[in-house]
Write the structure tokens for this entry.
Amino acid sequence: MIKVGDTLPATTLMEYSEVEGEGCSIGPNPVDVAKASAGKTIALFALPGAFTPTCSAQHVPGYVKHFDDLKAAGVDEIWCVSVNDAFVMGAWARDQKAGGKVRMLADGSADFAKATGLTLDLTARGMGLRSNRYSMLVKDGKVASLNIEAPGKFEVSNAETMLTQAKA
């Protein structure tokens, strides 16, 4: 399992872009994790699924709400990673009004989740292999802090915890 001091896994996530620009076409675009995190401080949080209750009611809204505070604390970007496809993540970004604040990154085949060792098997609930709920502060591609939730909990991966760690 990934731990503080480790480098993020060399994987590719997908991001749905609604506007063409900066080398991105409209639709799904690859995001090379190593290149995208190089030289930046990133508040990364991961969750089991788009449009799920806790994720939609608390997790994403907290990061959207605290966007300015996190930026003021030195965070360059906020990433939300979930085992969904880029189209779903794009629709969820619109629903959550996350545009320009939280990058909604799709881990469609759970490659990032598997590489971090932070998977959650929800096969019995008809959802397959997903990501565990967690957050991490990433500095120049390396994990500076890691907050992994216990099963069924939402206590340590929230935006407020991340803000405290970013300020430290």
In short: The mean pLDDT is 94.
